[in-house]
Amino acid sequence: IESLEDDGRVIFVDGTWVVADTILYCTGYSYKFPFLESKGRVEVDDDRVGPLFEHTFPPCLSPSLSFVGIPRKLIGFPFFEAQAKWIAQVLSGKSSLPSPDQMLQSVADFYRSRDLAGIPKHNTHDIADFTYCDKYADYVGFPHLEEWRKQLCLSALTNSQENLETYRDSWDDHELLQEALQSSHFTNFDC
Q1: Whole domain around residue 123: which residue ranges?
Q2: How crowded is residue 166: how many other Cβ atoms within 10 Å of its Cβ?
Q3: Which residues make beta-bridge pairs with 19?
Q4: Cα–Cα distance between 84 and 114 in angstroms, integer?
Q5: Do 82 and 133 reside in the same domain of the chain?
Q6: What is the dihedral of CA 60, 114, 80, 102, to 10 degrees?
Q7: Domain tally for the chain?
Q8: Residue 34: inside a domain
Q9: The model's pTM
Q10: 3-state class of 50 per DSSP?
Q11: Which of 31, 57, 98, 161 has the fewest Cβ atoms nearer than 10 Å?
Q12: 62 within a domain of the structure (yes/no)
């Protein structure tokens, strides 16, 4: 993009242009919390938010402060729903957390495992692991991810790698979509 004009035109570097009603900036997944004064107890360093026990609770400020939605590269909404349920259970006293020292040790062990696996710090919260999601669900008695959901995710990833420009328009997983529509997690709009 060369420029954005007041009349709604988007001018491209080759001189062509289009009129746009809306422009959506996709800037990536960078974490910033300028409103949070945690006195260094929660920091963002190279997109690593931490320390956070299980990507949710800062040990020195838990349970009064928690984060939902930090992890990436997972099936987000079911995971975030499990996070919210866990936070509610902890805040209501129905579930408890390990001691701050135990949580810090768990975070340190997690960071060490990521380092040993060669995962850069800025990818700390890239999970991409269904087993982790299921383990997390076990914390709160949340159901494990359904097999169709895992297969649909893998199918979409494979399709996007093979057909980057057209993967949103073509797919070969109709049976998974039909199974998804039968799931209790989908709203039925029968009127």
Answers
A1: 43-140
A2: 10
A3: 9
A4: 25
A5: yes
A6: -30
A7: 2
A8: no
A9: 0.73
A10: strand
A11: 161
A12: yes
